[in-house]
Amino acid sequence: MLIVANWKMNPETLEKARNLAIEIKNKKRKFGANKIIICPPFIYLIEISKIISQSVKMSLGAQDVFVGDGQSHTGEVSPLMLKSSGVSHVIVGHSEKRSITDTDDMVREKLFGSLESKLKVILCVGEKERNSEVRYFDEVRDQLSSALNKLPKKYIKNLVIAYEPVWAIGKSEAMEPTDLHEMNIFIKRVLTDILKLKEVKIPILYGGSVTKGNAREIIEKGNADGLLIGRESLKVENFLELISSILS
Ligand code: PGA
Q1: Are the C-beta atoms of 111 and 147 separated by less than 8 Å?
Q2: CA of 43: how far to CAs of 4, 40, 82, 99, in Å?
Q3: Which of 211, 229, 234 to mutate to test ligand 1, by most ligand atoms within 8 A of the CB atom?
Q4: Model confidence over 62-95: pLDDT tens digits?
Q5: What is the pTM for the complete model shown?
Q6: Of 96, 109, 127, 164, which is the active-site residue?
Q7: Residue 167 and residue 9 in contact, taking contact as beta carbons nearer than 8 Å
Q8: Largest Cα–Cα distance in the chain?
Q9: DSSP letter at 166?
Q10: C-alpha 87: how far from its chain's center?
Q11: HSE-CB for 190 with a 13 A CA cutoff
């Protein structure tokens, strides 16, 4: 099971970030077959990479990336910079980035540029709201096809999808597992069409208010292949309990 810890703009100091990473790493033996990907802010990546030393059980991810044209791009970080700093995964298209800067075209550029640089990409998709008009399926399909259309087959093994309904992020309750199950089936069908696959082996994670209390149900009843976790990944005890709760 893939567990992505999205620290967002946390913790507030490097010292706290180091401590958090050390506490998680020290429990590595108890992760079972789970793989944890820690995604700290850019500024902490190199320090955290020294602590977690990449292994089958833990790796380092970035929360964003920029794919430029070789010209001047003040404030941005390229896939190659990430790769050479010990990063193996990058989150692309998180709704919090989509809401301030990232258009569908930018998400596609980031995804292709990162895959070309041999990073693994966690592509986030998810509808903004859910109402009776079933439009949310179209929204998710459009995001997937805009990002993945004509993706060369050789990149598929480095792709992970994180389905994150925007209305469930940062809230007190996650999505109902039965609704998630339905969406997972839909996403698999869309991926089969867009990528012209016979069978979809791309992991589909769920994100949005996952806690130690609901993680197991989301995986078992929602059929998720893993989780993308925000707030709960910053509380060490809860995060470690969450990991043990999904050991099979
Ligand atoms: P949350 O965040 O777990 O705090 O809801 C999830 C996310 O934004 O990836």
Answers
A1: yes
A2: 18, 8, 11, 22
A3: 229
A4: 999 999 887 899 999 999 999 999 999 999 999 9
A5: 0.97
A6: 164
A7: no
A8: 49
A9: G
A10: 14
A11: 23
